[in-house]
Amino acid sequence: MDLVDEITRAHRELLDGELKVMTLSRRYDADVEDVWDACTTAERLSRWFMPVTGDLRLGGKYQFEGNAGGEILQCEPPGFLKVSWQFGENPGFSEVEVRLSAEDGGTLLELRHTAEVPPEFWAMGGPGSAGVGWDLGLLGLSLHLAGLPQFDENTFHQTDEGRRVIVESSQAWGRAYEAAGGPPDQVAAAVANTTAFYAPEDQPS
């Protein structure tokens, strides 16, 4: 599997208002029920995303290990999931929606992350600060659905292929940022900062 090609297959959009709305969509060669199961079953989530604990049903609370947690706000199998997505001690509004639909014998997945982002944080990294993480997550889903081994998230950025994936993702989110009206100089700074965060150049290859 060409991992950079997997990144280029996705479509990204940004609504840059008081709330930031990031949308990432792509098609998988798997049926809707299989993708839904991979996205909502704790055992499968731990194989391609992160270990998760909690009550994984409508109204239940969940927690990803070392990352975000929240409440399951809507759950309509096998097509729609909405959760609050809270990270840190004083999080603002943040929700994630996942919508699945059949397309060309496979599944179209649309992930939408709507969040209140502090201006200083947005100025530093723009949409790529979260978007690259979502790209890497959905890349993991692609490998999982294809029955392929996962990459090591701790060393992926140190490999040539991993760095190319991260750079392509960061630049793709930069293009979405510019299309949403972001000033070119601010977009360029955000892309550079995001790339440096996820794949610092002083790491060995």
From TrEMBL:
Pfam families on file: AHSA1
InterPro entries in UniProt: ASHA1/2-like_C (IPR013538), START-like_dom_sf (IPR023393)
Domain Activator of Hsp90 ATPase homologue 1/2-like C-terminal: 29-134
Record-stated family: Belongs to the AHA1 family.
Protein name (database record): SRPBCC family protein
Phylogenetic lineage: Bacteria, Bacillati, Actinomycetota, Actinomycetes, Streptosporangiales
